[in-house]
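User: Structure tokens for this complex, please. No commentary.
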Amino acid sequence: MLIKFTRRAAVTALVAAGVLTGSVGGALAQDKIKLRLATAGSETDQRSVAMAEVFAPMVADFADYEPGYNGTLFAQGTELEAISRGNLEMSIASAQELAQFFPEFSIFATGYVHQDAAHQVAVFGDPLMEPFKKTVEDELGVKLLSVMYLGRRHVNLRQSKDELTVMTPADLAGVNLRMPGTDAWQFLGKALGAAPTPMSFAEVYTALSTGAVDGQDNPLPTVVDAKFYEVTNQIILTSHLVDLNYIAFSKQVWDGLTPEQQAKVQEAADAAAESGRQKQLQLEDELVAFLKEQGLEIYEPDLAAFREHVQNQYVGSEFAASWPEGVLEKINALGN
Ligand code: KDO
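Assistant:
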């Protein structure tokens, strides 16, 4: 169950954690700092692999990296609050989770806004991102270090193509589609034309195998890594969200690091994000053949119909109302 965290509550929590009062414990020279990272992803997810194989060795001189996979350290959606309260050092956070605290982040969770991995990097590094980063830092005590590429999300169903062929959003009417449990995700599910059901990532495989849901949406590498292909029959290549995550880092811990250590952490986060991005892109290309071999039907729907329908749902929505003026135009200008 996700706790709704208001800005005021976040600030109160920060004060309780000592972040806003300056009582920050610096890392002693002889003690390595502990960097626990919570993620809903598995150990073999490319973001996890990049953090363990690229990030961890780069900070090993002064930090012990301790990842908690599959939502075992903190449940999906509760990680940012845990960092804010001083109970966790790092997470792989989504824009949808950040939108729970700061609705304007829904712009990065909106269907058909980001065009590809390079566009995500350009947006994250652009000055347009500064006020977003500053708000998260000042009000939640969380630094967003780098942007990770999760991939193009597609609709993945239990029904065979013979039972249900999806070419337009109207074909998804009544389809019980698992979406992660925040308002921004649920809105996206509805915008696709489906009937969204909130559910944490850890429960999806079982829900698909029992038929508790008709389908789920995720990029191809996740469909393979989480073995969703074992319990589904088709993938509709909707590419409705070029999905990202941020490497989130405790501001309290950051402030206790030396400038050299801070630079190293930043460099390591960027290197891990880049490594994970390249592997994920490669997997997205390669896995179509693997999934077809597993018997899944994979096809492209009427993409223009999906794009138009999704975009129309956001126009005039409460989400769009929270977007700072001009930011969507700036994001679009950074694309192709
Ligand atoms: C998911 O729950 O479907 C999702 O893909 C959402 C992402 O933001 C991310 O949290 C991801 O799960 C997990 O890391 C598991 O891959």
